[in-house]
Design goal:
Helix content: 40-55%
Distance between the termini: 34 Å
CATH architecture: 2-Layer Sandwich
Strand content: 15-25%
CATH class: Alpha Beta
Strand order of the largest sheet: 1-2-4-6-7
CATH topology: Transcription Regulator spoIIAA
């Protein structure tokens, strides 16, 4: 259950979601995206950062959910970035060329600064 393994921190327009799961499926991603979309609609969040430190696997439907959310963010000129991706997750984004769609950061602090000011 993702809700138990998810920590979300919002500071102004920035939301940082830290995932404490090894596998991120489409169903779990849908729960995450619904929470993030609610924050976008109701709380003025426009910049989202996913801390993927513990995620070792994402499935294709998860990626689809992230892409759909990214398209929704275009309406508010928002951003979505990923930080601390495990090597196999980063490789998946690179091999599918989604690293050109999503910004991947090695460091969470750098990602916070860059997503707001970059």
């Amino acid at each position: 259950m993702l809700a138990q393994n998810l920590q979300i921190e919002q500071t102004g327009a920035l939301v940082v979601a830290s995932l404490d799961v090894r596998r991120l499926s489409g169903a779990e991603a849908d729960v995450l995206i619904e929470d993030l979309a609610s924050r976008m609609r109701c709380d003025g969040a426009t910049h989202f950062l996913l801390d993927m430190r513990k995620v070792e696997y994402v499935d294709s439907s998860c990626i689809g959910s992230l892409v759909t959310f990214l398209q929704d963010l275009e309406h508010v000129r928002g951003r979505l970035a990923l930080a601390n991706c495990q090597p196999n997750v980063a490789f998946l984004f690179k091999v599918t060329r989604l690293d050109t769609v999503f910004t991947l950061y090695d460091d969470l602090d750098q990602a916070r600064t860059q997503i707001l000011h970059g």
